[in-house]
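Need residues for this backbone.
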C-alpha cells in the first residue's frame, strides 16, 4: 500500500495537467494521507482554526496576527539581547557567533567546507546511479529531484538529517526542526526570485528554514543561487497580496507567475541588493524562510550545478503550502 502511494506521488510530481489546479484533488490526497495530518487537529485548535484538517488552508484563514512571543526567537523585537545572553550562543566560537548574528541581521549564513569531498563525491555518484537506473527522476519542473533521501539512506543520514546541521537549524528557529523535503539539482534551477514562505508556510509565521549544499564548486555561468540580504525582514507575502486567481474550488493557473512578478516589484521598489552565491563544494548556505532568493540564468551551455537543498519545518506549528493552499504532509 505504502509503495503504491509513493508511486502515485511520484507520478503526480511529474504531472502538470488540470488536476493540479483543483482543490478537490488535494482534498482527496489529504484524505489518503490522513495519518500524516492528524497532528493538525490539536494545532488547529491551539491556533483558533475552525476547519477540517483535510480542507484547503491559507493565510486568509488566520485572522489574528500571532503574538510576538509565538514567532521564532530570532525574529522577535528583543532578539539581539536574547541572543547575546543565550548560554549556548556564549559557548560557541566567535566565528560561529558572527555567522549566527549575520543570520539574525541579514537572513542567511554560510558554513564553509561543512561537507567533505568524500561525502559530496559519494552523493554525486548516488544521484547519477539513481537517475540512470530510473529509481530517481526530475519532477514537472525538469530540474528538481524530489526527496532523494527517501531512496538513499546516505543522502538521508549524512545530509538531510545530518545531526550537526539539524542541531544548528533547531537553534536558529528556537524549536526542534522536522526535516520536511529535499531537492537535488544537477543543473541550476533558474527559478525566479521568491521566498520559501509562499511555498512552505507556517502559523505562526517564520518556522521554516533551508540549507543549500554545494555538491561541486559553483561558477558564474552555471546558474548560481542569488539572494537578497535583509529581505527576510520585509512583510511575508501571501496569496492575499497579489492576483493569485484562486477561486473557491480552483487554484489560479498563473498564481506562481503573478507571485514572482510581485516579488520582482518589491525588489525594485525597495532597491534590494542582490548577492550571487559562488561556493566551493561542501559549503552550505542557510537561509531564513522569508529571505528572497532564486536561481540565476545558466549562461554557460551544458554547465552543471550539482546541489541539494533541504527544507525544515519546526515542531509544534501549523505547516502548510500557501501557494497551493494545502496542509503539509509531514512524515
Ligand atoms: O537551487 C536553486 O537554484 C533554487 C532553490 C530554491 O529556490 C529553493 O529551494 O527554495
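Answer:
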Amino acid at each position: 500500500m505504502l509503495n503504491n502511494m509513493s508511486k502515485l506521488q511520484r507520478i503526480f510530481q511529474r504531472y502538470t495537467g488540470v488536476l493540479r489546479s483543483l482543490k478537490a484533488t488535494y482534498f482527496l490526497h489529504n484524505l489518503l494521507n490522513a495519518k500524516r495530518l492528524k497532528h493538525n487537529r490539536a494545532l488547529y485548535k491551539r491556533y483558533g482554526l475552525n476547519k477540517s484538517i483535510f480542507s484547503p488552508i491559507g493565510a486568509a484563514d488566520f485572522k489574528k496576527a500571532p503574538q510576538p512571543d509565538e514567532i521564532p526567537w530570532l525574529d522577535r523585537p528583543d532578539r539581539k539581547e536574547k541572543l547575546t545572553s543565550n548560554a549556548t550562543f556564549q559557548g560557541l566560537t566567535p566565528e560561529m557567533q558572527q555567522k549566527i548574528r549575520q543570520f539574525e541581521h541579514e537572513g542567511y549564513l554560510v558554513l564553509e567546507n561543512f561537507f567533505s569531498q568524500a561525502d559530496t563525491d559519494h552523493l554525486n555518484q548516488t544521484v547519477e546511479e539513481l537517475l540512470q537506473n530510473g529509481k530517481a527522476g526530475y519532477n514537472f519542473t525538469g530540474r528538481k529531484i524530489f526527496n532523494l533521501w527517501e531512496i538513499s539512506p546516505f543522502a538521508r543520514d549524512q545530509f538531510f538529517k545530518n545531526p550537526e546541521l539539524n542541531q544548528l537549524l533547531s537553534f536558529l528557529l528556537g524549536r526542534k526542526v522536522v526535516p520536511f523535503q529535499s531537492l537535488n539539482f544537477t543543473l541550476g534551477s533558474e527559478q525566479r526570485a521568491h521566498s520559501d514562505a509562499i511555498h512552505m508556510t507556517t502559523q505562526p509565521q517564520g518556522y521554516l528554514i533551508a540549507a543549500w549544499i554545494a555538491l561541486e564548486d559553483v561558477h558564474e555561468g552555471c546558474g548560481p543561487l542569488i539572494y537578497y540580504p535583509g529581505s527576510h525582514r520585509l512583510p511575508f507575502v501571501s496569496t492575499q497580496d497579489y492576483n493569485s486567481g484562486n477561486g473557491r474550488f480552483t487554484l489560479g493557473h498563473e498564481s506562481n507567475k503573478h507571485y514572482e512578478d510581485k516579488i520582482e516589484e518589491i525588489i525594485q521598489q525597495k532597491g534590494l541588493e542582490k548577492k550571487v552565491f559562488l561556493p566551493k563544494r561542501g559549503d552550505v548556505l542557510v537561509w531564513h524562510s522569508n529571505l528572497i532568493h532564486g536561481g540565476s540564468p545558466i549562461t554557460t551551455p551544458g554547465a552543471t550545478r550539482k546541489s541539494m537543498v533541504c527544507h525544515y519545518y519546526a515542531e509544534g506549528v501549523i505547516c502548510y503550502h500557501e501557494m497551493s493552499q494545502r496542509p503539509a504532509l509531514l512524515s
